[in-house]
Amino acid sequence: MIALVNVTLIPLPEVQTPCPYLPGIRAQTERAIAVEFSESGINYLLKQGFRHFGRFLFRPRCLWCGKCVPVRIDASAYCFSRSDRRVLRKSERAGFEVSLERHPLPDPALFELYLRHKKRFPFPAEDEQENYDSFVDSFFAATPGAALLRIRDKERTVAVSHIDLVGDTCSAVYCYWDEEYAIYSPGRVAILHEVLLAKSRGMRYLCLGYLIEENRSMIYKKGYSPLQVSTRPGVWFDWLDAEGHCIAGAPEHPLFIVEDSLRESFLL
């Protein structure tokens, strides 16, 4: 068991699997279960490059690759581009409403939306009830700081983004949307409203998870700036300036390398 910064973790064995993002590569994942959680603990783990679904935490630990790079928007310095404003106006003209739910409850209708959205990706089919249990555990586990950003068209849910509001960070955990509304760019609308939410709460960062430049489903995160990257656990630096240009002295294609696992670094 590992105790650190208001979090108690049970490390799980690291596993190697085929990489779900880059073909022909093996992926190694560091995993843990949170026994005790706190907002400050989640924020600390985010800055160490971890992500979480409910109480399940993970981060890539592929010393031979490093292409899953944690990124976060400097929301405090973010200026909405003409394109951003156009996307927001389009959703406003369509009559979309955006709400924040601080203690969301499991909803089978959201599960159905989640499943429809997952069909965009080549995941293997699983048992539906098992999927629903996993869905609830991942997104409705009542972890500290958990919230749900919902975009509605009247009574119909257009998009849902599960987020964490912890310390100086808003973290986008997972977003899914109705493909019938794709022309409104619902995923982008959600991110822009998360930037607005972070600004309104005095939070500096919007954490977007991992950027993978060679995966077209993950490269979109590079389109938001100013953007910071992490190359080592807890080590962050400015990467892209407000115009999206690589900052002088920063690596053009950064890598995230985890040399020591939490078990190796913190086991008591």
TrEMBL record:
Residues 111-229 form the N-end rule aminoacyl transferase C-terminal domain. GO terms for molecular function: arginyl-tRNA--protein transferase activity. Keywords: Acyltransferase, Transferase. Residues 18-86 form the N-end aminoacyl transferase N-terminal domain. GO terms for cellular component: cytoplasm. This is Arginine-tRNA-protein transferase domain protein.
